Amino acid sequence: MRAPGQDRQDRQDRLQAPGGGPVGGLAGPPSPPAGPAALELASAASRLLVDRLGARPDAVVVLGTGLGPAADGLGAGAEAVDLTTLPGFVAPGAPGHRSTGRLATVGSRNVLVLEGRVHLYEGRTAAEVAHGVRTAVLAGARTVVLTNAAGALAPGLAPGDVVAIADHLDLTGTSGPLAGLVGSEPHPFVEMSGAWSAELRRAARAVRPSLPEGVYAQLRGPQFETPAEIRMLRTLGADLVGMSTVVEAVAARHLGAQLLGLSVVTNLAAGVEDRPVPVGEITATATAAAPEVARLVGAALAAGAAGAPDATKAPG
């Protein structure tokens, strides 16, 4: 007969490694920094980034799924910085995303091209997702360009189209990258009306007058949406849906940067057409649009629009 509580003790013993710690990573690594500590980490990374690049970036471009070739289209140099050697950076887990940054010259501007990103669906926190953009802005980038692969909800959009983001819906279910910053500077109560720069969209439209624009909704993923969820998103006003971008956009606006967003339509969203989402075609469809994305980004950045002033002030 077993003593009372023995079964429970046996279960606890089985969860202990020989050295006394939990097995199988059950306790996990220490929580990544958030709040003021996340900003301090990005500030430390920014100083090392400038040293590795040999210059301060004036703008940063984040390349989404399948859009890696746009780095060459922007004229990025062959030498790449391994971002995982900088404080706070983790390697992306999504296929095709790289943990490298390359410097390009567009017009008179130094442009840092990030060849991938991390996502919430990789188990990362909002602060980790925002870290690359925060680091770039604190290094000097006053313009942030966010690109992604997206599903289309709006009539008239088709795979291969490039759409400028005019507004967004944050449906990630997270408290976001500004959590824990109450009482800090810059304050986290960021006004998000007009977050996506109309000036930068006009600059991109100078080389493509027919460039459409729409509202982008970010969900957490990694699963794709159901037809019922797509009907809900249409009711909420979404034209595009994806699993990135909005968390980074909030972090960029918090630090006063100007935003341009470009989505490549890689598929029609669930229920829009009578077939499953073509998951296996998404990367190839995005890659085919990479030259056009590079052309639009180059036009917007070459226009030389300076970062718009904000009510907040980025820490030095």
Determine the number of helices (DSSP H or I, runs of at least 4 residues): 8
Structural classification: alpha/beta
Strand order of the largest sheet: 5-8-7-6-9
CATH topology: Rossmann fold
State Rg.
Answer: 21 Å
Q: Secondary-structure element order, as H and E?
A: HHEHEEEHEEHEHEHEH
**What is the number of strand segments?**
9
Q: For the record, what CATH class applies?
A: Alpha Beta
Percent of residues in helices comes to 25-40%
Q: What's the shape?
A: globular
Strand content: 15-25%
Average pLDDT, to the nearest integer?
Answer: 89
Question: What's the short version?
Answer:
With 316 residues, this protein is an alpha/beta fold. It has 8 helices and 9 strands.
List the helices and strands and how they pair.
Blueprint (H helix, E strand, L loop, with lengths): L5 H9 L21 H18 L5 E4 L7 H4 L6 E3 L17 E7 L2 E6 L11 H14 L3 E10 L9 E10 L26 H8 L7 E7 L7 H10 L3 E3 L3 H9 L3 E11 L13 H21 L14
Parallel strand pairs: 1-4, 1-5, 5-9, 6-7, 7-8
Antiparallel strand pairs: 2-3, 3-4, 5-8, 6-9
Helix pairs in contact: 2-4, 4-7, 5-8
Structure description:
This protein has a single domain, classed as 3-Layer(aba) Sandwich (Rossmann fold). The longest helix is centred in the last third of the chain and has 21 residues. The protein is 29% helix and 19% strand. The protein has 8 helices and 9 strands. By secondary structure, it is α/β, with parallel strands linked by helices. The C terminus is likely disordered. A 5-stranded mixed beta barrel has the order 5-8-7-6-9.
